[in-house]
Design brief:
The complex is a heterodimer of chains A (458) and B (248). Chain A has 458 residues and is an alpha+beta fold. Chain A has 8 helices and 12 strands. Classes of the chains: A alpha+beta (458), B alpha/beta (248). Chains A and B meet through helix 5, helix 6 and helix 7 of A and helix 9 of B.
């Protein structure tokens, strides 16, 4: 496995490495504890056995004297029980036992000692280690009683080997496991970054890979994808706007340019002045369109939500009525206002006011009573069950149901209103502001006339 | 509100030059042509202008010479417009400042006013709007806010009893009409544009596409000018409205 340096830098690998170290230390501690305990226990057992035998031999000596002792040692030496015996006289000659001579390590010091000796086995003789007790007796006699501890040594060795293997395997599996884990993690991160690079390069249709396991990376990918969906929606909205803007701003600009050109060619002084005046008016209309587009963009971007405050909708409607009442009265129309007290919600006051202004302006422009030419405006603000309802209604010619969807699109102007001044952006702004406030827009037939109903959650 | 129909800029200036005080105005604007037009318009209205085309020069001029009004663009080379304003204010200079900017969002306006600006006008603007605002910035000492009685010619407004009298005769006004008249009287002798009225009397920062303000004005006029030969509430064509402080 070629180790990529990038893998070693991942957080997964770092975590795994830390975990592995802690794990290895604890395995080492447990096994060392087991090892030391076993070794000590086995040694104690050996010591006890030897101690008991020495006691037994001493008993024999007391009861049966030297000959009895020698007899017992000779007897026991014949059996291959793993015990070693040696009984020597004052010159060191062996008098009984299965050891040939006093082991080198025993000379001169009494007590416990370990030594190598040649043990009899089924296949012959083997070098084993024995543990023995060395006792000097009166009259220059020496007694050595011991046990073969080869088994014990082998067992301790086995535990030692097991300890090293366990540590070694834990290290190998741990390191390779964490490498694999990191590689897997890294591969997913790499695919996420690769996707984001293609998106940055301009392909907004790209989406983060989702494995379907619902793990944390999937959750991250899913929320990134939601974000991308939103961005794509906004971008396609932007594209649509730009193409609309291109068309609806170019048309008047072309007109203005042609007029200015013609005026420059003309030698009649009055004509130039007239052209300039018309151009000024048209510039102002263009600016109105431009500002309306900016307001719509602002409403649609959702940025204004941060600045929402508690707005008394009833009060706002009353203010609107107050603003328009003289104009409506001038045109001999009627204005009916119905406001339920306590109609409040979190909103952007300026944008809501602009929305209502657009709707009332629409009545004044397109919603006049077809017979009398008078504006009849009805304003309502009320609330029930956590919902705020606002409507603006008129007694004009209304909007055909088939056009309800279309009229809120940018720059859309219906055939019958094309002759009136306007830019086709009024209802787009209304829709944008409603969506900013998470509300719904509903165009209804007012029998006759149009009723624009807006509902918001408080 | 943008420039209404059939009125040329020239007419506006001429009407204006007669009654406006001459002011020394510093224009800090990097677009030389725009600054030129602005300077020309202001000169024609009887004012004297100086021009700085970058932030540092602008700040140096604003802090070393006396001006009546500063017109500051927001995006400038070398030093941002808001920084100039903060610096000017830090040095204790209280000259009224009009901020000009292509950034027109309400938040941008608030930011500009917080930095120490006195008024904010989004680009592009009608010259008449700019002129009205520049002249509106220079407060006259007798229209301080703590005054309780406002006077203009034979019109008298008592802010405490909320009574209005014309030539001693009481005029009954609706609350909104009172507010409208109060604003006009506080700015007596200065042109007030429709946008200024919407912003200050109604607190709306956008322009309705119908002539709502004109209708309010004509109502008010119907009440205060009804029985008099000389109208006190004048229409300044192409700009807005004005109540003169003294008889012309």
């Amino acid at each position: 496995m070629r180790i990529n340096l990038k893998v070693l830098k991942t957080s997964t690998f770092r975590l795994a490495a830390i975990y592995l170290t802690v794990f290895a230390i604890s395995i080492g501690a447990v096994l060392s504890y087991v090892y030391w305990n076993t070794v000590v226990l086995l040694q104690d057992q050996t010591n006890d056995t030897i101690g008991a035998e020495v006691q037994g031999l001493a008993e024999q000596y007391r009861q049966r004297g030297l000959s009895g002792l020698l007899e017992v040692i000779k007897e026991r030496s014949k059996e291959n029980t793993g015990s070693v015996y040696l009984f020597t006289n004052f010159v060191g000659r062996r008098m009984a036992g299965n050891l040939d001579s006093l082991p080198v390590g025993a000379v001169g010091n009494e007590g416990w000692f370990e030594f190598p000796y040649s043990a009899r086995t089924q296949t012959g003789r083997e070098k084993h280690i024995a543990r023995a007790y060395h006792l000097e007796l009166a009259g220059g006699f020496t007694l050595v009683v011991g046990r073969d501890v080869e088994e014990r040594r082998k067992f301790a060795g086995l535990i030692r080997t097991a300890l090293f293997w366990a540590l070694g395997l834990a290290a190998v599996f741990g390191v390779s496991g964490s490498l694999l884990m990191s590689r897997n993690f890294l591969a997913r991160i790499d695919s996420i970054s690769a996707t984001s690079r293609t998106i940055m390069a301009g392909d907004l249709t790209g989406r983060m890979p989702v494995t379907g396991t619902g793990d944390e990376l999937d959750r991250l990918s899913l929320s990134l994808n939601d974000m991308l969906d939103q961005i794509e929606r906004l971008m396609s909205g932007m594209k649509e706007i730009s193409s609309n803007v291109a068309h609806d701003l170019r048309t008047p600009l072309t007109r203005m340019r042609s007029r200015v050109e013609a005026a420059l060619r003309s030698n009649v002084p009055g004509e130039q002045r007239a052209a300039l005046e018309t151009t000024l008016v048209e510039t102002d209309q263009l600016l109105v369109t431009f500002n309306a587009l900016l307001s719509i963009a602002k409403a649609e971007s959702g940025q204004a939500r941060a600045g929402f405050t508690d707005v008394d909708i009833g009060e706002l409607i009353e203010e609107m009525a107050d603003l328009y009442e003289p104009l409506i009265e001038d045109q001999e129309g009627s204005l009916n206002v119905h406001v339920e007290p306590g109609t409040k919600m979190k909103a952007d006051r300026q944008l809501l006011a602009q929305m209502l202004t657009n709707l009332i302006d629409n009545v004044m422009k397109y919603g006049l009573d077809p017979k009398t030419g008078q504006p009849h405006v009805e304003l309502f603000a009320g609330h029930s069950a956590g919902q705020v309802t606002i409507y603006v209604a008129d007694k004009g010619v209304g909007i055909d149901e088939k056009d309800h969807q279309r009229v809120t699109e940018r720059f859309v102007r219906l055939e019958k209103s094309r002759s009136a001044p306007g830019n086709g952006l009024g209802l787009s702004l209304v829709k944008g502001v409603i969506e900013l406030h998470n509300g719904t827009l509903n165009l209804q037939d007012n029998n006759p006339g149009l009723k624009v109903v807006m509902r918001f959650n408080k | 509100m943008l420039n209404p129909l059939n009125t040329s800029q020239e007419q506006v200036h001429n009407q204006y030059a007669k009654q406006a005080l001459s002011m020394r105005i510093l224009i800090i604007e990097d677009d030389l042509e725009a600054a030129g037009w602005l300077s020309k318009g202001l000169s024609e209205s009887g004012h004297v202008t100086d021009h700085a085309s970058d932030g540092e020069t602008g700040l140096a001029l604003a802090t070393s010479e006396p001006f009546d009004v500063l017109i500051v663009d927001r995006m400038l080379p070398k030093m941002d417009g808001l920084e100039i304003i903060r610096n000017v204010r830090k040095q204790g200079i209280k000259t009224p400042i009009l901020i000009l900017s292509a950034l027109s969002e309400v938040d941008e306006k608030v930011e500009g006013l917080r930095a120490g600006g006195d008024d904010y006008l989004a680009k592009p603007y009608a010259f008449s709007e700019l002129l009205a605002r520049v002249e509106g910035l220079v407060r006259r000492p007798d229209t301080e806010p703590q005054q309780t009685v406002l006077l203009a010619q034979d019109l008298e407004m008592d802010l405490l009893s909320r009574k209005v009298k014309r030539a001693g005769q009481e005029v009954l006004l609706q609350p909104r009409e009172f507010k409208l008249l109060e604003y006009l009287m506080r700015n007596a002798g200065k042109v007030v544009t429709r946008t200024m009225l919407l912003e200050n009397v109604w607190n709306y920062h956008f322009d309705p596409q119908t002539n709502v303000i004109d209708v309010h004005i004509s109502r008010l006029r119907g009440k205060i000018d009804k029985d008099f030969d000389t109208p006190i509430l004048e229409t300044i064509r192409g700009a807005g409205y004005m109540i003169r402080a003294h008889k012309p």
